[in-house]
Design goal:
Largest sheet: none
Distance between the termini: 33 Å
Structural class: mainly alpha
Number of helices: 9
Radius of gyration: 17 Å
Shape: elongated
Strand content: under 5%
Helix content: 55-70%
Order of helices and strands: HHHHHHHHH
Amino acid sequence: GKLKDSTNINFAIPTIELKKLLNTNEKAENDGVLSAELSALWEQATSSNDLHEQKRLYQKILLKDPDLAEVHYNMGLVLFSLGEYHNAKNRFKDAIKLKPDYYKAYSNLGLVLGKLKKYKKARDALIKSISIKSDYSSAYLNLGVVYEIGLKDKQSARRIYNKYLKLMPNYFES
């Protein structure tokens, strides 16, 4: 029989983390009222369970300040969850442009590139994530899946899965 696309279940999807809005843009006009407004929108977006509402709020924030890497990143997570993979890819790339050491954005860029069947580019993004943060377990798991399912390289997949298991030794215990 035909193998079904198991990447749907194997890729580890990180949860959207509630964190304080980091205003990386130092423009004077962003001080005061606008910062409070952006903070309020951020709180609404990160506490909402409705993906379409989150998307709308993140778009609103980005219209007011397009230089917030964390907003691009979270927008990428929302778009990924909505199945908008090409748009998610662009958000993760924008987050990386604004914050070149954003290892989670590289990892999720690898994740979305895997979904788009761009396995060599996915591998490269995941390796970059690991080069920035060598103990980021999600990147190892996703890289193992890319090697196994996308690139059909079982030996590399096994090597990467073993590194993942060293980082997460209790993962499979019940």
